[in-house]
Specification:
The protein is mostly beta strands and 289 residues long. It has a single domain, classed as Beta-galactosidase, Chain A, domain 5. The chain has three helices and 18 strands.
Length: 289
């Protein structure tokens, strides 16, 4: 009996060890980054980026998504932030990826904002609070809250931005809840900053409703970048997709009624990964339905 009990005990130990070895490695992450100016970072095994928080307001105050390029595979954001504590320019150098995308005060790589009288009425602050509402090895969902601001005389809005990041996809889903008063409808635009000096190649289509670009890296102040970036937004049901030369943005717009959600997708890629050309990137955009 003792021998049988030992055999069963060892079998249980080996079974437990096998389960641990088979546990899925996370392919997604998202978190608040207090050690770096209240960033909120997100990542899967193909893409990464961040939103700007309160501590960075004024440098810049911007809803724009800051795209990070990376090679397919491992999650890198936590390592980059840790190394940046020793060298602030760490993630501007290529370590299998880098931050080489200029946002400034813009929509960056796929944010949204009310579009009023031919202008982007951007939030008066960066996001001020957040919550992670779902976290699994293959999916993370988080919400960023932007306090109320005035977009036109008598029209005030606030924004709850829900972002869904799934493994193995170049695109993230956004469900924006714009709560507004003082108007019957609100025109909202999702879009991209065009870095015109970087030889931007662009594709705008109303069916499917998408705007995509392929261009050289936009921020070469620390280390020159010889790769290319692909960025895109897709707005199902958009009423218009256009290039706005004065704003140097490509945008896709839709009118919202109170209580409606503005759903869209943003995505990116790096030519040093699996998508090598503008044609590769534009074909990937076409796959998103």
């Amino acid at each position: 009996m003792k021998r049988q009990a030992l055999i069963l005990a060892f079998a249980a130990i080996f079974a437990l060890a096998g389960c641990k070895q088979q546990a899925a490695e996370p392919k997604v992450m998202a978190r608040f980054v207090p050690e770096r100016s209240d960033d909120f970072v997100f990542e899967n095994n193909l893409v990464a980026g961040r939103f700007y928080g309160k501590a960075l307001e004024g440098n810049p105050t911007s809803p724009g998504i800051d795209i990070w390029v990376k090679l397919p595979g491992a999650l890198v954001a936590d390592t980059w932030y840790a190394e940046a504590q020793k060298d602030p320019n760490y993630y501007h150098h290529d370590h299998g990826g880098k931050d080489c995308y200029k946002v400034a005060v813009s929509l960056g790589g796929g944010a949204s904002a009310p579009f009023v009288d031919g202008r982007l009425a951007m939030p008066a602050t960066n996001y001020r609070s957040y919550e992670v509402v779902e976290q699994t090895p293959d999916k993370v969902v988080f919400v960023l809250h932007y306090p109320e601001w005035e977009v036109a005389e008598g029209v005030k809005v606030s924004l709850d931005k829900q972002v869904t990041v799934c493994a193995d996809s170049y695109f993230c889903r956004v469900d924006d809840s714009y709560n507004f008063t003082g108007a019957e409808t609100l025109c909202v635009a999702a879009g991209l900053l065009r870095h015109s000096a970087q030889e931007t190649i662009e594709q705008e289509r109303l069916t499917p409703s998408s705007y995509a670009i392929w261009e050289h890296a936009s921020d070469q102040s620390v280390e020159p970048e010889d790769g290319m970036l692909g960025v895109a937004v897709i707005v199902p049901g958009a009423k218009d997709v256009c290039v706005h030369d004065e704003l140097d943005h490509g945008i896709a717009t839709r009118d919202l009624k109170p209580g409606e959600t503005f759903t869209y997708y943003f995505g990116s890629c790096w030519s040093k990964g699996d998508l090598k050309t503008a044609e590769d990137w534009f074909a990937e955009v076409e796959k998103v339905k």
